[in-house]
Structures are given as C-alpha cells and as structure tokens.
Amino acid sequence: MSWQQAWVIVLVAAGAGFPAACNGAQDAPRRQPAEVDQEVMVLGPFPLGELCRRMSAVDIQAIPKGGGPSEEALVKALNRCKAYLLVRRWRSPQSRKWVLRGKRDDFKVVLEGKFSYVLSDMKGEDFKINVSGATFSVDNLYTDWGPRGDTPPHGRARIGIQLETSPYRNVNVPGLSHRDLNFVSPPFQLTVNGEVRWGTEQHPSKK
C-alpha cells in the first residue's frame, strides 16, 4: 500500500474570527481567522478484509482450516466493513508546526459498513460472523519534529479487530473449537501529516 493521505476535519478553531455584520450598503472590514490550535485527522478507509489478509498465514487460515468459510470468502465479506482512524494533532506554541501528543484520547478508531455476515462453511452450512469491536494502539511515538526539521512526528500503530463467529475446529487441539477470532494488523507508521506506510515503505524523513 502506498502512502495514504488523510482527510482533515477541523474540530476546534480557538479564537477564530467571524465576518462582521453589514451596515447599510457598506460592508464592515472582515477579520482574518486565527490559526487553528488543534485538528482531528480522519485516516482511512481500512477495509477489514485487507487488514485480515495482512496477518500471518497461520492466523488468516485459522477459520478455513477449522472447517469454516474460505479465506477468499472471509476477506470479501469483511471488506464491506471499514475502519477509520481519528488522530488529533496540535499546534506547537513554539514552532507553530503540527505535533502529536502521547494522550490516549488523541487516537481513536471507528467502524462503518456491514457488521454481520452469514457465509457457508466447508460443509455448505451457515457460518455466522459478527464484527464485535475494534482497537487502535500507537507506540514508539515521536511527538515533535526531528532535529533537522525534516522528520515529522510519527508513531507505530496497529488496528485490532474482534470477531464473534460460529464454532470452528482448533486444528492444534483435537476436540476443541473456537467461537471467535481476534486479530491485530501488522504495525504501520502514521505521521502528523496524515500519511500511512506499511512494512518496507520509506521512512517519513525520506519521503
């Protein structure tokens, strides 16, 4: 996946000015809006099926090997539900550049789309899946710009998805079955500029 640009939604515009009211035929001078002190970026969409496909082969194939639907059917269904990441960025009082903070409330995930599916297992019987939750975690967070000013604030992120499912066999323990699957995406980097990179893509300082 290439660098992915975010949508940016301005939530707070501290001290922003508004146009003055008109007075007869002559407009009053308009004030310039103040700089926004914080914004929330919306990163995505991230289709759940593609996140599932990025897991290790062992995790992806747990349900098919246990008698459930094929990997292709799972990915196709889960792609109908998408994750969006909400990342709050702040204006540095010193440099006036955008920076990140280490606050948990600055990083959230929301899901949109279809949450429940009825697929067919290997015997042709109904296999139900329900998307029951999602998590968004960030670590290795660099909150400010690098010393030379060419490396934006960035962090290592993961998206976790919880699925409730019909029973499927545990291929490692005979006689044991599962009724769910919790998976976490491989780590990816996100930057204060709303960019996302996976695996071997360039470091933010070399973009």
Overall outline:
elongated
Distance between the termini: 14 Å
Low-confidence stretches: 1-26
Rg on CA atoms, Å: 22 Å
Largest sheet: 6 strands, antiparallel
What is the N-to-C succession of helices and strands? EEHHHHEEEEEEEEE
Instruction: Give me the secondary-structure category.
Output: mainly beta
Strand content range: 35-45%
Number of strands: 11
The overall average pLDDT, rounded, is 81
What proportion of the residues is helical, as a percent range? 10-25%
Number of helices, where a helix is a run of at least 4 consecutive DSSP H or I residues: 4
What are its keywords?
five-stranded antiparallel β-sheet, disordered N terminus, 4 helices, mainly beta, 207 residues, six-stranded antiparallel β-sheet
Describe the structure.
The chain is mainly beta and 207 residues long. The strands form two sheets. Strands 6, 7, 8, 9, 10 and 11 form a six-stranded antiparallel beta sheet that branches. Strands 1, 2, 3, 4 and 5 form a five-stranded antiparallel beta sheet that branches. It is elongated. The N terminus is likely disordered.
